[in-house]
Design goal:
Length: 415
């Protein structure tokens, strides 16, 4: 996606749209669709367990001997034909499950819980990608702010250098002062070169994360007040819940193994001999019936398996508690950052105001030949540093605000 689609202006880039595009274009997002297809196929396969099973069989055989009745009936005026030595049979077996102890239902619950676990795991991995996008974006914003601040300072230095040339021409200011300013000008341009290369590297990282292409003149828009999703929650908590639900479904599946299976069966056949063993004619014959299978003796295996599942559920609770502890530590760190930067920004504003006054006074004394340009440049650099610190703290404060909501899972980036 081109950068234009991520921004308000023609070449500006917004954080919320970067987060949305990164989530949409990530390979993890495509993984959701694949998982859903797998689930649908597995549920269809399980549903087919309730369909009747049909098997077709055929058999032809020749026996060296067969049942002979002539010896038994030799004194009777009755003749019973002997069974044929060659026998033929083709038949269909049809079986229908009537009761499976709830096994298919439990298997479906296991599959659905497994699918949801995969989805929440994917969401957790997507959240990590969003954190990366946010980190790169705010680094870009900080780089852009520093570039603008140093660029303004450079323009101001050039203007003051030109004004100083008049003092040098009139003999009020020593030529060395002009050389010091030119050296400082080169130093500022060097810093701008470093920032330009850093910006290029960060844009490349953002391009990879969002699968987008950004023009070299792209502008990073400072994020507005974040939109809070009050119903948002970290996907890891949902993942833990679903893992326990899947274990519970497995417990029901194990319990279903202790219940009897009831089924109906039938066999439709054509051949000879059939159930009438003395018939030498080809004919149809069939069997219908019902049956039950119950393996009621498992030597405590079910009890042990359920105990294992209970222990696994306890492990999930332990992991959830451990995750919650680490998350609360991260959230507290971001809250501390918010308080810290709020306090620092108030001090930054006071320092910046004083540094501007000092630099203005130094410029007047420099123009009157009272101080050297080195003294003035010290004051000018102190003003520049104060301005850079204020800009950095303002951006880092905004980053802490976004990080806090992302860590909570409550940042709405689709507004």
């Amino acid at each position: 996606m081109a950068a234009k689609s991520l921004a308000d202006g023609p070449d500006s880039i917004r954080l919320d749209q970067c987060l949305a595009v990164a989530s949409e274009k990530s390979a993890l997002a495509r993984q959701k669709g694949i998982s859903e297809e797998i689930l649908n196929d597995r549920l269809t396969n399980l549903k087919s367990n309730w369909y009747p099973s049909v098997g077709l069989n055929a058999q032809a055989s020749y026996n060296s001997e067969t049942v002979e009745f002539s010896d038994l009936l030799q004194n009777l005026p009755v003749s019973i034909p002997s069974l044929p030595l060659d026998q033929y049979k083709i038949w269909a077996d049809i079986n229908q499950q009537l009761f499976d102890g709830g096994m298919v239902k439990a298997l479906k619950q296991v599959e659905k819980a497994g699918y949801k676990s995969e989805i929440y795991q994917t969401e957790a991995e997507l959240l990590a990608i969003r954190m990366q996008v946010s980190q790169v974006f705010f680094s870009l914003l900080l780089t852009q702010n520093n570039t603008e601040t140093i660029g303004s300072s450079l323009n101001l230095l050039e203007a003051r250098k030109n004004a100083l040339k008049a003092g040098v021409s009139n003999g009020v200011v020593l030529p060395e002062n002009l050389l010091a300013m030119e050296a400082e000008e080169i130093s500022l341009r060097q810093k701008l070169t470093e920032l330009r290369l850093q910006k290029t590297q960060l844009f490349r990282a953002l391009s990879i994360l969002t699968d987008s292409v950004f023009p070299d003149n792209s502008i990073v828009a400072e994020p507005e007040i974040p939109v809070v999703d009050q119903n948002g929650i970290r996907p890891e908590f949902l993942l833990f819940d679903m893992q326990k639900e899947r274990l519970q479904a497995n417990s029901k599946l194990i319990g279903s193994g202790d219940l009897p299976r009831v089924f109906a069966f039938s066999q439709l056949a054509y051949g000879r001999p059939g159930y009438n063993m003395v018939s030498r004619d080809f004919h149809t014959f069939y069997t219908v019936g019902a049956g039950m299978k119950w393996n009621f003796l498992n030597y405590g295996d079910t009890r042990r398996q359920k105990r294992i599942i209970g222990l696994q559920q306890q492990l999930v609770d332990v992991k959830r508690t451990n995750f919650d502890v680490h998350l609360r530590i991260q959230l507290q760190a971001e809250l501390t950052n918010l308080e810290k930067y709020d306090s620092l920004m108030k001090q930054d504003q006071a320092i910046l105001s004083l540094r501007k006054s000092i630099a203005g006074s130094s410029l007047s004394r420099l123009n009157n030949g009272i101080i050297t340009s080195a003294d003035y440049l010290d004051d000018m650099n102190a003003e520049l540093l104060a301005e850079l610190q204020y800009g950095a703290h303002r951006i880092l404060r905004k980053q802490a605000e976004y990080n806090y909501l992302i860590l909570q899972g409550k940042l709405n980036f689709n507004h």
